[in-house]
Here is the input.
Amino acid sequence: MAYSASWFVFPGGSAQGPSKAAVRSMSDELRRELAGQRTLVTSVHLGAADTATTNGSHVPGMAPADVAHAALDGIEADALEVVIDEFTVMAKASPRRSSSWSENDA
Here is the structure.
């Protein structure tokens, strides 16, 4: 699970963002290494799941069962990457992937 933090740095996420980016990068490299033996490596990305970790936070989470179903659907479809929720789709597509960015930074 790489989460949207692999593409999007949020306030207070200076440790989580790079660690999730490393998960995404490792998945990409493993995919290349294992392609010759036809091993599928699928990375799964989402904003948040509704778990004990997100309880009490302002981040809305998806039901864990919905996350699992979406991930398995992607794997069954031989997807290299599964982007589960709309927030993560937007984070991946964002040209400037930091929530702390402002026009003054340009």
